Amino acid sequence: MTDPVKSIRVAAAQISPVFLDREATVDKAIEHIAVAAKQGVNLIAFGEAWLPGYPWWIYLVSPIKGFPFAQRLYKNAVEVPSHTTDRLCKAARDNGIYVVIGLTEKDRGSLYLAQLFISPEGRIIGHRRKLKPTHNERAVWGEGDGSDIIVIKTDFGNVGALNCWEHLQPLTRFAMNHLNEQIHVSAWPGFSLYTGIIHSFSAEANLAASRSYALETQSFVIHVGPHTDEATVAMLCDDEHSASLLRVGGGYSEIIDPNGRTIGGPLEPDTEGLVIADCDLSLIGAARMANDPAGHYARADVLQLVFNRSPRRAVIFRDVDPQDGPKEAAEPPTLLSVAPPEAHVAEL
Question: Cα–Cα distance between 224 and 185 in angstroms, integer?
């Protein structure tokens, strides 16, 4: 019997996508996956909707003015599995590294804000969607369901992920804590929007949410905010008003330990690069001895969470048997536990 791994090296990719260009953005992901692996990184995380870029226009212009951008996003969204995910899987396998990446997923006719977990063997071992898109995001993405609250068992510990203001949902945090998360990807779109206008959109406010998450769940948190580059701002901001709302930069990525201490980063917000830190997993046990809100620190006699993990489906197919009548046709299994499902393998 081998001893459990005591330490993991993780990286937050404070990198700008090639905005609304799916395959060019994948090229950039592959490049930085390789860079991270050469520095001994075991797990690299990319931000919210990073592939092929966060739809900033929903906060900048009217729906009709944003329609051409919406069309480009739809065209460049990612089907799972697909040639695009094959390329990401191959990069993970070639470099022997775990990858957690945020993307806009296209499923049939709808878009969803998804995150993929890819193993060093090149398999998709986790796939989730944001439970509730925030504010104007609801004009772009559909909703996830209870089966999207997942924690994945890896060689280096239990890994989970949430997007942006999912971190403000106390019951979601409690559910993730119950699933024994140890390494958490806190994915954000970056902090380039409404700078100095709405404090709740600021880097300071949202870093506080990630730090609180680390303290509450006793996990290592990879707080990753992509860099917004000049090309993206130039594409979206063609007048003085919109240019005042979105700026270049906004990274502010950090890595936080279970005691709420920054152990990696930050980079300068206007800089692209990787934030890297070594996570000593033995710190988790010490933190949980003092504070385990979903365990010994809970008061289930007073407050309990009802957690519906069933997938929500708009259509349930039934096969008709002439003798026995209609029967429900089984759909492919959905990830409902820490154990990974059968996974898609990248083709070489």
Answer: 7
Maximum pairwise Cα distance, the chain: 70
Contact in structure between 45 and 222 (CB atoms under 8 Å): yes
Which of 94, 99, 132 is CA-nearest to residue 113?
132
CB 152 within 8 A of CB 116: no
Active-site residue among 31, 48, 143, 342? 48
Quickly list DSSP for 233-262: HHHH--SHHHHTTB-SB----EEE-TTS-E
Tokens of 308: 């519906």
Which one-letter DSSP state was computed for residue 166?
A: G
Query: Residue 70 has which token pair?
Result: 């919406």
Contact 196, 190 (CB under 8 A): no
Q: How far apart are CA 146 and CA 149, in angstroms?
A: 6
- Note the pTM of the prediction, 2 decimals: 0.91
The rounded average pLDDT for each run of 10 residues, N- to C-terminus, in the chain (348 residues) is 74 98 98 98 98 98 96 98 98 98 97 98 98 97 97 96 97 96 97 95 97 97 97 96 95 97 94 97 94 93 95 86 59 40 43
Q: In angstroms, rounded to a whole number, what is the distance separating the alpha carbons of residues 222 and 267?
A: 13
Using CA atoms, how far apart are residues 135 and 130, in angstroms rounded to an integer?
A: 13
DSSP letters for 89-157: HHHHHHHT-EEEEEEEEEETTEEEEEEEEE-TTSBEEEEEE-SS--GGGGGT-B---GGG--EEEETTE
Tell me if residue 79 is catalytic.
Answer: no
Domain boundaries, the chain: 7-290
In this structure, which CATH number among 2.40.50.100, 3.60.110.10, 1.25.40.10, 3.40.47.10 belongs to the domain 7-290?
3.60.110.10
Q: Give one word for 217, left, alpha or beta, with left for phi > 0 and alpha for psi -120 to 50.
A: alpha
Written as one letter, the residue type at 311 is: P
